[in-house]
Amino acid sequence: MDDQKELEELMEKIFEVDQLDVPPSNFTYSVLNRLAVERKEKLIYSPLLPKWLLVIIGVFILILTYVVLGVFAVDSAESSYNLSFYEATSWLSHSLVKIDISNVLGYSLLAMGLMICVQAFVINKRYGTRTTASI
Amino acid sequence: MKDDQPDIAAILSGDTQEFSRLVDSYKNVVFTVALRMMKNREEAEEVAQDTFIKVYKSLLQFKGDSKLSTWIYRITYNTCLDRLKKIKKDLNKLAIEDIQGFEIKSVDDALEGMVKSERAILVRKCIEKLPPKDAALMTLFYLEEKSLAELGEILTMSENSVKVGLFRARGRFGKIVKQYLEPETIENYG
């Protein structure tokens, strides 16, 4: 037991002169630099408009085109070519043409659809990526 | 340092300035423990950097159950152990083979005859010969003055195991010191 006590005292004496080691002066900078690199690697790129929204917009435009084409087809129903084209359109446009849509409304809807389409494309191209970083 | 604790909330919200303050506060101890465990300056620097990266990444998980320093030193210790396993360094190998027992009195007398700077060099040389786990234990106990309970938290062991570990580490360290203080070594010290 005495030996243990003496050993403890000896260690105290030895270690009272011990000092901490010092890392290189640029240590903190290196850590922050590594952290920045790791965070950059972890950047997740996700489109501004999610895919599902793009699909919905696409489907909407498609429907709109069918409807407008349907209106045109009905307007020029005398032409057998247009008539067959009209018949060839889907059941959806077939049923939708029963809704009375004026030419002006049809053009307006088409213009609006095209506008949305162009805007979605341009916005997606311009701000197509947004970044999210995770720790 | 306790009054000047880094603001964890600020770090979590992305304040890198605050994180650099944390690194500055703990880098010396982290580097010292890493150096004494790895026995190589380059590896120690790399491990110390890894430690702070881990600290940053897992800061969200720090609940404050223990002191921030204790938590950081535990990450340091585990990072060193992982690295040692990776490079397959023997954790328990004692570099000095066949060390005989020693008389405390003779070592004590020899130390009395040495100046402070010589003793500091001696400590460093002897710690280099200690197995990594002993080196970490002795450094944190004597340099950082961590309690047995805190050491237990850092090294993931019970207080009793820490006590036993310290006892054995002291014995091994004393024997290494004794070997360094052999007459021919003393001559080298001048």
Number of discrete helical segments of chain A:
6
State the major sheet of chain B: none
Determine the mean pLDDT of chain B.
83
Number of strands of chain A: 2
Poorly predicted regions of chain B: 95-100
Q: What's the number of extended β-strand segments of chain B?
A: 0
Q: Give the strand content of chain A.
A: 5-15%
Helix content of chain B: over 70%
- Shape, principal axes of CA atoms of chain A: rod-shaped
> Beta-strand percentage of chain B?
under 5%
The percent of residues in helical segments of chain A reads 55-70%
Q: Could you give a short account of the major beta sheet of chain A? A: 2 strands, antiparallel
Oligomeric state of this protein: heterodimer
Q: Notable features of this structure?
A:
heterodimer, A: 135 residues, mainly alpha, two-stranded antiparallel sheet, 6 helices, 69% helix, rod-shaped, B: 190 residues, 10 helices
Q: What does this entry look like structurally?
A:
- The complex is a heterodimer of chains A (135) and B (190).
- With 135 residues, chain A is mostly helical.
- Chain A contains 6 helices and 2 strands.
- A two-stranded antiparallel sheet of chain A has the order 1-2.
- In chain A, helix 3 runs antiparallel to helix 4 (80-88) and helix 3 (51-75) packs antiparallel against helix 6 (103-126).
- Chain A is rod-shaped.
- The two termini of chain A are 52 Å apart.
- In chain A, 9% of the residues are buried.
- The longest helix of chain B is centred in the N-terminal third of the chain and has 23 residues, at 16-38.
- Residues 95-100 of chain B have low confidence and may be disordered.
- Chain B is an all-alpha fold and 190 residues long.
- The radius of gyration of chain B is 18 Å and the shape is elongated.
- Chain B is 72% helix and 0% strand.
- At the A-B interface, helix 1 and helix 2 of A face helix 2, helix 3, helix 5, helix 6 and helix 7 of B.
